[in-house]
Structure formats: C-alpha cells, structure tokens
Amino acid sequence: MSEKAYDILRAVFGYESFRRGQDKIINHVIQGRDALVLMPTGGGKSLCYQIPSLARGGTGVIICPLIALMQDQVDALREVGLSAAYLNSTLSAEDAAVVRKQFLQGQLDFLYVAPERLLMDSTLRMLQQARVSLFAIDEAHCVSQWGHDFRPEYLKLSVLHEMFPDVPRVALTATADIRTREEILTRLQLDPANMFVSGFDRPNIQYRIVEKNAPRRQLLSFIQKEHAGDTGIVYCLSRKRVDTVSQWLNEHGVNALPYHAGMDTGTRAKHQDRFLKEDGLVIVATIAFGMGIDKPNVRFVAHLDMPRSIESYYQETGRAGRDGEPADAWLTYGLQDILLLRQMIDSSDADEAHKTVERQKLDAMLALCESVECRRTHLLRYFGENPEGECGNCDTCIEPPEMWDATVAVQKALSCVYRTGQRYGVGHLIDVLRGKSTDKILTQGHDDLSTFGIGADLDQREWRALFRQLTAKGILIGDEEGYGGLRLSERARPLLQGKQNVSLRKAQESTPAKSAKPARLSSSREEIRFYCAEDEILFEKLRRCRMELATLRGIPAYRVLHNVGLKEMVECRPQNLQAMQHITGMGSQKLKQYGASFLQVLQSEGADTSASYR
Ligand code: ADP
Ligand code: ZN
C-alpha cells in the first residue's frame, strides 16, 4: 500500500485505517487504472476516488447527477481543507467563469460536474487544458436502462475513455444487481477485471417487514416504542399520503416534516436543510427525498408503502445507520400495495419490454416480503452474494414465521372468488366466506352461494394474509380497472381442482411480538455507553460545543465531527492538540479549526472535577 495514501487518510481525513475494500481499490487507482466500485451506501466510496486523486495530483473531476448534492459535497471537502467547486446549471455565468479559471490554473483539488454540463464541448475542451487526476462517475447505475434511475446523458460518458485515454475512471454505485453491473461495464467500456465488489451487507441494520393492518398506528407505535426522539425517514408512495402522515405524526408528538416534489422548492430545500442540520427530526417523504443524503445518524427508515423493487428498497433503507450504530429498516405492506403497484405498471405508457422488467422487479420485491427465510440472506443473494448461515438480526431470524397447510382454505377462497363473479375486493370476499349478512351480501344474494359461511374457522386477519399471499404469488390478480376486485389467474386452476397442495405463512399477531431487541431508549443516548455520570456530562458538553461550532459556520453538526469522534474524546480525554490528532475524523484542517474549542471543554472538565473533590 502506498505510504502516500496512508498519509492522506490520516492527515487530511483524520482516519486511522482503511475500511475493508478501500485499500485495494485506492492502490489500484493510484496506479492509473480504471475501477468499478460496488459498495453499499455508507460503505465509504468517496475515499476510493478522493485519495487516489490527491495522491496522483491534478484535479479530480466527479460526474454527479444530483445537482442538489454538489454543494453539500463541496462543503464537506472544504471542511477538511481541500479546494473544491462545482459546475452546474445553478451557477451564474460569472461564477462559472471563476470556477473555470480556478480549474485552468490548477487550483482545484476537486471539480463536480453535472453530466449534461460535462458533455458540452466547451467543458470537454476546458478539461483538456489542465491536469485531470481522474474521473469519478458517481451513481454509475444511472447508465443502466435496467436500473431504476436511467439517465440518457450517462450513455455518452464513454466519450471520456476516448478523449482522455490516460486518465483513470472510477465508476461508483451502491445499487447494482448482476444485470446492472454488466450493463455498467459494457456501456462505460470498463474491463471486468477492474470490478471491485465489497460486501453489500449492512450488519447494523435490522430488517423487518410487517403485515399492514392500521399502517399509521403501526408506524406511530414503532416510533414511540423504539425511536422516540430519533432521526428517521418515513417513505410513502404518494404526495398526499406524505402530507397526511407527517401531520398525523406531529399531532401525536413526533417532530416530523413533509418532503415531496409537489412542494415549492424553497420549502423543500428548507426541510432538507433542517433534516441535515438538526437532530431528532423525522422526515416523511416520497422517494424524491434522499439520493445522496449522507446524514450518518439516521436511526430508522420506515416504509409505509412497499417499494417497487429490491434495488429501491435497499437503497432507501441503506440511508439508515451510516455511522455503523444499530438502526432499523421497517416496512409495512399488504394486499393493496400489490394491487396498486401492479396497476401502476399496467397503466403506465412504457413499452412492453420495460413493463416486463418492472413486473419481474416487483415480483422479486414481493418474494422478499413473503419470504420465510432470513431477510438478509434473501437480499444479499439478490445482489449476487452467497452469505453463509442466518443473520440473527432480521424479523424472520428473530421470530421464524410458522407455515401451515392451507390447501383447503385456498380452495375455499378461490372458489368464493369464482362464484361471486371475479369482481369483488377482499373485504367482501371475506364477509362471504365468514358468513356475514351484510347489506351488500343480501342484495347480491351472496348468502345463497355454496361458499357462504364455509370459512368461519379462520378470522379476518388470517383470511387477509391468505388473500395477500395468493395475490403475491400471482394466483389471484387485480381487476383491470384497478378497483381492487380480484380475479383468478391460470395458476388458480390446479389449486381449485385440488391437484396441488399449498403451504402458506401464518398471519402475524396483530400486535407483533417484537422482543428479541429490548425496547430502546432514544438512541442518541444509546449510541454511547457511559461508564459513569462524568462521561455522560462530558459527552453532553462536547455535543454542545460541537453544536455551537456548527451553528457558527452554518453546517450540520456531524460535519464538524461524528459522534464516534466525541465518543473517543470521552474515552481518551486528550489534553493537548497532539493527542487530539488521534481522534477519528480530526484531520489537520479540523484540528486547526476545532481542536482548541474541544480542548477547552476537556480541560475545563479536569478543573471542574478536581474542584469538586476538594
Ligand atoms: P458512500 O459509500 O455512501 O458514498 P461515504 O463515502 O459517504 O459513503 O462514507 C460514509 C461515511 O464513512 C462517511 O462519514 C465517511 O467519512 C466515513 N468513512 C469512510 N471511510 C472511512 C474510514 N476509512 N475510516 C473511518 N470513516 C470512514
Ligand atoms: Zn436474518
């Protein structure tokens, strides 16, 4: 490993060691070779191009599709004492000219460019006139049509290879199933030998998928019991739902803010900014929120609606626990999710080939939801890994679901769908099966059917779980109008004829027993285990000091220093700058900027306690 890389890691970024995978990639790129880096969100991809770029000299050019994030990334680099700038459509002509000049004079360590900007002739010409250390292609899955964020401009990025054959390219992404990977390699003309796959596992995230009964109440109770006062993200499918859910949470004492593309830009930006800078806020959002959000202490990501693919699910849940501390990914889903998402695909104006892909992805997501094996194993396998054993940190590991032989019940259900004319929703079907004499049943004469009352042995919840699973398996399908009526598919026939046995997952208790993990205190407390009251007091003081430093500079607290750093200060109590330098995250720039303030807190502590002993 090059000494230079270690020096930069310690002096600039203030880290002691590389994470698994980083050293190999960095070494490889420093030598001028291309790389495709596949690492989960929070894995530490940025260093994989930042350090080689600094070691090679020249400006590292980062292609980033998210304009909203460039500012953030540039701020972060400046915070550690590097010079960085961006070029995108939000810059005035004058400001862009300043950036160009800085680049041409070799003053920039890093330059962020939006893809459409990069591809402009003027930009490409500019890049040829100064030294580029490397190209980093962030969110590289955007080049894939199979992927979920396809950007046509990304296809043209192969121009880099042609125009700058000697400049290494580092493509990075957190989402890449095997097909996407292959597509990135081909489209960017990268050699498969240059692919680095880090384990996709996020062991500190606990995965849980629960049946949807009363989603808002379920969510509230999850937050109140396990995450009171924590920072979290709640994802909903529609804007309207975002608004109602965030209002509901506020009415119930949870500090929540809405975020979706229908809000005006100003408010949206304000909410994102507050989320980044404050602690203990819950943002309720559509998937418009979060690309590239690198807030480290998000303690939970909750999905009130099912995502349409495992890629989306993994990317969204990946925003939890980037600091490596325990975090939760909680999803509630039910029959309506399946019907709605299927309906959305069917009625979209995409071409058939695209729809087929979408359907396959949805089916994979459904299989995850209905899975009785370890969720993590299931997820990792989807991303091409082959983990051994079970994780012990997901709902199916903690509370293995029970199966039951549902052959007869399934026959009853399917026959009820058939006899009522294949157009009723699950509520009515269950009423018929359970023999309820509702108005609807009486006016339709459904009390005369042979299936009326033949299912009184199962309760409402059990029938719901059964209908949901039959729909997830594609045995029942939604009506074309999208009103929630159910029909039989071809697959129903052998079951109706009793030629095939079915075993299904048992319905969950309405109050899911969630016991393996003890109910937790707010984890801002839990993140650090205090040995004594002095530690706790000191930590609070350091936090306050960090907050003041952050407010003064108008940046989020974690940008000053992560909790890990504060925790280490409590443990080691450095008394001078020399010792302070070993705290994680304290690079030379931060040491200069913040070291003295933290020292003051640490030293005053010594004074306090000795005084109190006297
Ligand atoms: P992503 O892979 O999602 O882009 P980042 O590059 O943002 O992840 O890194 C995630 C977090 O991990 C950041 O806060 C970063 O500072 C931290 N990190 C990365 N590499 C190391 C390391 N070697 N030692 C300590 N912290 C690291
Ligand atoms: Zn598991």
Oligomer: single chain
CATH C-level label of the largest domain: Alpha Beta
Kindly estimate the percentage of residues that lie in beta strands according to DSSP.
5-15%
Q: Going across the biggest sheet, name each strand in turn.
A: 3-4-2-5-6-1-7
Alpha-carbon Rg, integer: 27 Å
| Largest β sheet strand count, sense and barrel closure | 7 strands, parallel
CATH topology of the largest domain: Rossmann fold
User: If helices are DSSP runs of H or I spanning 4 or more residues, what is the number of helices?
Assistant: 29
Name the CATH superfamily classification of the largest domain.
P-loop containing nucleotide triphosphate hydrolases
What order do the helices and strands come in, and which of them pair?
Layout: H1 3-11, H2 22-30, E1 35-38, H3 46-56, E2 59-63, H4 67-79, E3 84-87, H5 93-104, E4 110-113, H6 115-118, H7 121-128, E5 132-137, H8 152-155, H9 158-163, E6 169-173, H10 178-187, E7 195-197, E8 205-211, H11 215-226, E9 232-235, H12 239-251, E10 256-259, H13 265-277, E11 282-285, E12 300-303, H14 310-317, E13 327-333, H15 335-347, H16 352-370, H17 375-382, H18 395-398, E14 403-405, H19 407-419, H20 426-434, H21 439-444, H22 460-472, E15 476-478, E16 486-488, H23 492-496, E17 503-505, H24 523-526, H25 533-553, H26 557-560, H27 563-572, H28 577-580, H29 588-613
Parallel strand pairs: 1-6, 1-7, 2-4, 2-5, 3-4, 5-6, 8-13, 9-11, 9-12, 10-11, 12-13
Antiparallel strand pairs: 14-17, 15-16
Bound molecules: adenosine-5'-diphosphate and zinc ion.
Zinc ion binds near residues 374, 375, 376, 391 and 397.
